[in-house]
C-alpha cells in the first residue's frame, strides 16, 4: 500500500475511533462500601475488644438499602462489605482504569458507611481489623501518628484519585461515617471527613463536622434511609442530594435528630447539565433543547421587598433569587417568584431583609464565571483571609439551609464561596433557579 494511502486510511481509522468514543453511551456505576465487623469475628461485639474500634450494626445493611434504587435506575452496582485496608486499595486500583475511561455524561456514585477519622489535616476511612494503642500513640509525635494512620487506614485522597476527573462526568460521594467515636479527641475523632472536593464532584456528609450519627435508630430519621428514599424518587443527582439535606435539616430543626447532612459541590459539578439518576431518563424538552434568547417580556429585576432601616439595623440577610434565562425561562421565573413571595411572608422569622428577583442571562451565565445549570444557594463560607467561617458562627449558611429546607423538592444545593470577585459580602446570600426538571411545589 502506498505511504500516502496508508496515512489516509490511518487518519480515517483514528477519526472513526474518536467518533465512536464521543458517541459512546454514558454509563452509571456505583461503588458501595460498608464496614461494620471491625474485629472480623462474624458478629456484633460489644463491648469492643482491646485495641479495636467499635463494631457497628448498620453499614453492610445500608449498602443493600442504597443498592436497590441504584440498580432500578440502571446502575452497575459494586457492593463491598467489611474491607481491610489492602482490600480497598486493591478495589480502587482495579476500578481506576474503567473510571478514567468513562464516556462523557456518565455518572459515578460512591457510598461509604463505617468509621472515619481526621488527623492533622489528613482524612481517613477506617478499615476492618484496624488496631491501635491509644496510650502509645498519644505520646508519639504528630509525624509518627500520621505515618501510623497512613499505614493502617485508608486515605480518602486515594478514593478521589481513582474517580473520574473529567468535567463532563458527574461524581457523587456520600460519606455516612459519623456513627460512633472510635478514637478519643486527643488523637483523632470520628467527625465527618472533610476533604477538598474535586471540581466535578459533589460530596455529602451524613453529619456536620465534630458530630456523630447513631448507628441505628428510627429508620425514617436515618441518613441511609432518607438517601435511599430520595434515590428511589429519581431525578437530577444534585437535586437528590439537595432533597436529602433539606429533609435532614427539617428533622434537626424539629429536635428529632442531633445533626444534619452537609453538602459540598465542586464548581464543575454545578456547571454540568442536569445529571439524571437513570441514564435513559427523559427530562422535559425545556431542559434538552437548544436554549433560546430571552423574549424580553419578563422583568430583569423584580423587587419583592425593599430594604428598610429596620432591616439595616437588625443586619437582616439580603437575598437575591436569580432565575436562568433561556428556553423554559417562564417556568423558572414563576418558580423563583413563588419562592420569593412565600419567603417574604416569613422574613422576620428567617431574618431576611431585601428580597429581589434578578435575571441571569445566558451570556452572563456562560461567560462571566457563573456557569450554573441547577438549583443552588450560595453563601460566604470563608473569611477574606481564606480561612473557613465556623459552622456555628455562619449566619448566612444557616439562612441558606433553612430556606432550602422550606422547599425540599426544589433540590437546592448549598454552595460556600467568598462573596463577589473574592471579596466577602456581608449579610448577603443568593439562590439560583436554573433546573427546570419538574414543577417546584409550594413551601412545606
Automatic annotation (TrEMBL):
Keyword Oxidoreductase belongs to the record: no
Gene3D superfamilies from the UniProt entry: 3.40.50.1460
Gene Ontology biological process: proteolysis
Domain of life assignment: Bacteria
Pfam family, any one: Peptidase_C14
Signal peptide annotation: 1-23
Boundaries of every Caspase family p20 domain copy: 26-116
Entry keywords, A to Z: Signal
GO molecular function, one term: cysteine-type endopeptidase activity
Protein name: Caspase family p20 domain-containing protein
Lineage start: Bacteria, Pseudomonadati, Pseudomonadota, Betaproteobacteria, Neisseriales
